Amino acid sequence: MSNTAGLTKNGSTLPWPMQLAVPVASLITFGIHLLISRNSPPLETHSYMLLFWEILGVSIVLAIAQSFWPALRQWMRHMWPIFTAAILSIGVWDIVTSGLRLLPLPYFPAPAAVLRSLVSDRALLLDSTWHSLVLLLSGYTLGVIVGLVSGVCIGWSTSVRYWGMPLLKVVGPIPATAWIPLAMVVSPSAIVSAAGLIALTVWFPVTMLTASGVSNTRASYLDVARTLGAGRAYLIFRVAIPAAVPNIFIGLFMGLGASFLTLVAAESVGVKSGLGWYVSWAQGWAEYGKVFAALIIMAAFFSTIMTLLFKVRDRILVWQKGMIKW
Amino acid sequence: MVTTNVAAASALRVHEVRKSFAMPDAPGASRLVLDGISFSIAAGDFVSLVGPSGCGKSTLLRLIAGLDFPAAGELLVDEEKVPGPSAERGLVFQDPNLFPWLTVRRNIEAGLVARGVLQEKRHEVGDFMRLVGLEAFGSAYPHHLSGGMSQRVALARALINHPKLLLLDEPLGALDAFTRMRMQDEVLRLWENRRTTMLLVTHDIDEAIYMTDRILVMTPAPGRIDREINIDLLRPRDRTSEPFLRLRSQILEHLHLAGKIADEVSA
Lengths: 326, 267
What we know:
The complex is a heterodimer of chains A (326) and B (267). Chain A is mostly helical and 326 residues long. Chain A has helices spanning 2-7, 16-36, 42-65, 70-99, 111-120, 122-156, 158-171, 180-186, 190-215, 219-227, 232-269, 274-284, 288-316. Chain A folds into 2 domains: 2-102, no CATH class; 122-320, MetI-like fold (Orthogonal Bundle). Chain B is globular, with a radius of gyration of 19 Å. In chain B, α2 (104-115) runs antiparallel to α3 (118-131), α2 packs parallel to α4 and α6 (205-211) crosses α7 (242-266).
């Protein structure tokens, strides 16, 4: 009964089990921690305890606020099961690591230790994130610009396609990371060559999908435009390219995913900054709490950038609303 | 064979046009699609081209639009050879082919943008949106529109360039019967208001008799115009009147007979 009530969209309040899910989950997880770490030094639990008090406090405030604020309620209805599961899985992690010691130390630290690394090394982590962001964006932007230009040329002109396509098909599939040894020699600056590698990573899928989008423009769109008095510039920039935009975005997403890989690989080999460098540096000191802390930051960082690209796509492809399913 | 000698005032003159296409599965061989097509249309006339599917109607329209070139013969618009596609010859297809990434208003503006005259002619956009009754839908995207509405946008988009000749390739073919009849009146109203020379391709004989001044009947394989019928009925025409029905059965009989002969020839 209460389950069906929870699924109706217009309930004036969240059902009790859902309101209580997050506070209870955080109490359980923190309880697990207290139980397991009775012998640990108090320092280790301090920030961890603070985190759970905060989650507890915020979730109680939200549970109260949702009865006055329908938009919040809608959001909570959607997100709360996931949050609950995430908090409980931290508890499971705690049991597996410091509780039952199933995983070898120091490679798999307990969540509290990871949180402590995250907090204590925040300045360096922030700085590394900033460096990664700058490197990623400069490489990605360069790759997208070059990829769009080469993709449009290959897609539009048959002679460019004749010469360009074989090159693209042969060079493109080589993983950009395989160029690392060469890239180090070519450029004196590791940062510049890393940006070049990221650009190369992005260039391939963007070119490929832009070219296929442009060359597959519906012939009737081009015919209509011609009978409206369109010249070549109009046909390319106002018909073929807009028609290719859905395809181009697939290329942009593929390129972004691959560029994360190249970024981290380049940073852990040659570049002396960024999250990839931080991970291998922390590993060198056997500080696995910091390794995990950096992984958490990476997860947040990369998924935020992905989400931003999704937002840009939704904005540009409003004309497709209801048609895109990915 | 039909020969017309009213060259002087004709907006469009098609003279002995032939067109053949290469056969994709037999290299070197080709299939004759249009065999010596000749006719002319006076300025301001509304003429239709009727025939069974596969008789080369659409091919002929593409040749007139300049999207393709004849193997032999001449196509003259205002006594000048068609050099290629231009805004002087608008074309509306069965599929409205609206640009899905542009709003209704921007679709209608497309011709002005393409010709680089948007600044001077922007005031006309509103007129044309009103003309086709879509002033309230300016910011809608094509995927929100019904078939009839889309086709009205396509008509406005073609008309905003003030073409000398408007080519209509089964523009109402995909619409349901009721929308179709309403749109026939709509197109007639546009023609009566603006007196743009129009050439309508259709396989619907009722539509041709109801709307146009003259019907060119085509037979297939290869396409020929073997009959020209003037429709002297007063507008608005009554689809159930006796002369209307007589014309209709006359044309149907003719097409049926021609179809039979074509079948025997190919068999």
